[in-house]
Design goal:
The protein is mostly helical. It has helices at 6-23, 30-37, 41-48, 51-71, 79-96, 98-104, 113-131, 140-159, 165-175. The protein is 71% helix and 0% strand. InterPro entries: Homeodomain-like_sf, HTH-type_TetR-like_transc_reg, HTH_TetR, MT1864/Rv1816-like_C, Tet_transcr_reg_TetR-rel_C_sf.
Length: 182
């Protein structure tokens, strides 16, 4: 088996995502993706096999990018600031790849390790806030779910043009208030 060309894969995934957004699921074809990326259909079929393989790759790539953005958030001495930084990194990743963001959270892909891996840093950050006495409670899961739902909703609203980045920042600030120990 030939080594996977990550640059070509990313280029094809981005082309496919743009087509999906512009033309909808019915307008997405491997032939169109190849043409949009300026390659023959052979590498598209070699890399993805079929349309479902391409959609799966798009899904994984979206979460790969999100994971990289979250992993880039440095850990400081301020647990709450680090948690907030994760929220902003989530938003930036979504805004950087809006064409993939919507696909990441649609049905048809099941529960994936890639998705779970991008949720774990949030749970860990909430647990740190709890263990350091910033947040009340000892179970980080419900708090993390609350924060993720808010961030996801606000990003989705921003991507659809309903709110702006200032609204995201304001709501992110309010999201943690019910859990503050101070």
């Amino acid at each position: 088996m030939a080594p996977v060309n990550l640059e070509l894969t990313v280029r094809l995934v981005d082309a496919a995502a743009r087509i999906l957004v512009e033309d909808g699921p019915g307008g997405l074809s491997l032939r169109k993706v190849a043409a949009a990326a300026g390659v023959s259909t052979m590498p598209v079929y070699t890399l993805f096999g079929d349309k479902q393989g391409l959609l799966d790759a798009m899904h994984r790539e979206g979460f790969r990018r999100l994971g990289l953005a979250l992993a880039a958030v440095p850990r400081t001495d301020d647990a709450l600031a680090d948690l907030v930084a994760l929220g902003f990194a989530y938003r930036e990743a979504a805004l950087a790849s809006p064409h993939l963001y919507g696909l990441m959270f649609t049905g048809g892909f099941g529960h994936t390790e890639a998705a779970d891996a991008t949720y774990r840093p949030l749970v860990t950050a909430v647990a740190r806030c709890q263990s350091e006495g910033v947040f009340t409670g000892t179970d980080p899961e419900p708090v993390a779910l609350h924060l993720w739902a808010l961030a996801h909703g606000m990003v989705s609203l921003e991507l659809s043009g309903k709110v702006d980045g200032a609204a995201f920042a304001e709501q992110l600030g309010y999201a943690g208030l019910p859990f503050l120990a101070r």
